[in-house]
Amino acid sequence: MAEQGATVAWARRASWRERLAQLPWWAIATVALGLLMLHLILSDPNYRDTFLFLGQGVKVTLRIALGAYALAIVLGLFIGLARTSKNPLIYNTATFYVQNVRGIPMIVLMLYVAYVGVPQAVKALQALGAWGLTWAGDGPLAGLFTGMAQANIRNLSLEMRAIIALAMGYAAFEAEVFRAGIESIGKGQMEAALSLGMNYWQAMRLIILPQAVRRILPPLGNDLVAIIKDSSLVTVLAVRDVTQLARLRKASTFRSLETYNILVALYLSMTLSLSALVRYIERKWRIP
After folding, report:
1. CB–CB of 155/122 below 8 Å?
2. Which helix (H) or strand (E) holds 239?
3. What range defines the domain where residue 148 resides?
4. Is 124 a member of any domain?
5. CB of 144 within 8 A of CB of 174?
6. What gap in Å lies between CA 95 and CA 81, rounded to an integer?
7. Roughly how many angstroms between the first and final C-alpha of the chain, as a whole number?
8. How many domains does the chain have?
9. What is the pLDDT of residues 173-212, one digit of tens each?
10. pTM to 2 decimals?
11. Is residue 93 part of a domain?
12. Which of 45, 114, 242, 266 is buried most deeply by CB count within 10 Å?
């Protein structure tokens, strides 16, 4: 009986050890740190004032990140389709864009687009509008060409330029994600769709893309989290996102500890929330 009791006690201890080992300790530690930060915000005036100041930039950060992500998805889809094209001109143009843009650091791309790309595009638009006015005269397109000729770089804020730059950078990555998803679908499905009388675009829209999107949802979700983090680079353009406000707060108060603790907590709350949402969608769609 004594040996049996000792065996049962040992089995119970082993069971508890297994349960403890299976607990998500990283999540418990993250929640504990979050509760500690909440306590500091509620009890310490310096933390509370810093949180209220930086909180104003969260809306700007989300607006930039989500706007750039939506634009990158649209651009990436078309570039990804071009990367699967059998037309040499279309394929090589898309490949040139993907290979070169992916080789440029995001911060350099942001500076280039904001201070070189966008101004030059506006000048080209103005020139096209001026040429169109000489060609259209008083015709129905005169109003359109007049608006193009009167385009002004000042009408494009630095925030909008940051969105364009992030979108252009991430479009190159999304294009490869879409290309991989499309090519993962068996060629027989496209051939079957074409044999049923569908054209290429109908087959792609109704047959190929719905399956491809389901497979590439995890990397698309990861890129959404990544673009939230990379949106902090807009601080080089003096856009008043949460990172720029943290720099201003630190410069005016010299309280580095409170400022950067709050900054890290805000970014973690955004990225972990989006990661949880992505995992929920993956489970709902039963994506392996």
Report:
1. no
2. none
3. 46-284
4. yes
5. no
6. 11
7. 48
8. 1
9. 999 999 998 888 877 787 787 787 788 778 887 888 888 8
10. 0.85
11. yes
12. 242
